[in-house]
Design goal:
With 221 residues, this protein is α+β, with helices and mostly antiparallel strands. It contains 7 helices and 7 strands, in the order H-H-E-E-H-H-E-E-H-E-H-E-E-H. Helix 3 (43-88) runs antiparallel to helix 4 (92-106) and helix 3 runs parallel beside helix 7.
């Protein structure tokens, strides 16, 4: 019966939230355990504290959304800068230089390497045997959470103080300029398998288009 009475009381107060305002004498008698250690506090204090908690949670949510929006704006600005530099590039070498600057300065990539097959027009790359190239550089989209053997990591990143803890890949598509760009980080969470790869795909499309344009100009010349 006690539980039933409590449920009825709760339901009535929910349906008539103004009831306690109309019965100030009853409000004075109601107490709840204090949020700290010790004495009691009024129902009003409890309600105020709850509102403060909800306000803090809402403010945290808003701050998170604002930070995400600012980050997206910043990434869009960096991507636009890269697009302009690639449009102005007149050779594959210039395209690679623009991409390298963008990855290092704008996107704060700790280290990266460009892998190519036996036939490639790209400078500053690691050339793979045909079998290794076919195994790594298939037609997949950009990926995060790439897994490689320790021996491969040591070969591709020989100057690193320690082996990369996470990897992502950008696929470069072109008739004469196919490549696979590996991005590496010492942070195991930076390129985790659950990371969105939309930005990597946009970089891939921009860089691939610029390389094909420059390679076509070289053939025409």
């Amino acid at each position: 019966m006690q539980d039933e009475a409590a449920a009825q009381c709760r339901a009535y107060l929910q349906a008539h939230p103004e009831f306690l305002l109309q019965a100030p004498d009853l409000l004075q008698e109601l107490t709840l355990p204090h949020l700290g250690v010790g004495s009691a506090s009024s129902l009003l204090e409890r309600q105020v504290q709850r509102l403060r908690d909800e306000r803090d949670q809402l403010q945290h949510y808003v701050d998170t959304l604002l930070r995400q929006a600012q980050r997206q704006t910043e990434l869009g600005r960096h991507l636009g800068r890269l697009a302009v530099e690639l449009l102005l590039a007149q050779s594959p070498d210039a395209c690679v230089t623009a991409l390298r600057r963008s990855l290092e300065e704008d996107f704060a990539v700790e280290s990266f390497v460009m892998l190519t097959g036996p036939q490639s027009c790209l400078p500053d790359t690691i050339t793979l045997e045909e079998s290794d190239w076919q195994r790594l550089a298939d037609d997949r989209e950009a990926q995060a959470g790439v897994q490689l053997e320790e021996g491969e990591l040591r070969r591709y990143f020989p100057a690193a103080a320690s082996l990369p803890a996470s990897l992502a890949s950008i696929r470069v598509r072109g008739a004469d300029c196919s490549a696979l760009i590996l991005l590496a980080s010492a942070d195991p969470e930076r390129y985790g398998a659950d990371m969105a790869t939309d930005l990597l795909e946009q970089i891939s499309r921009l860089f691939s288009a610029a390389l094909q344009r420059c390679a076509g100009s070289d053939r025409d010349a």
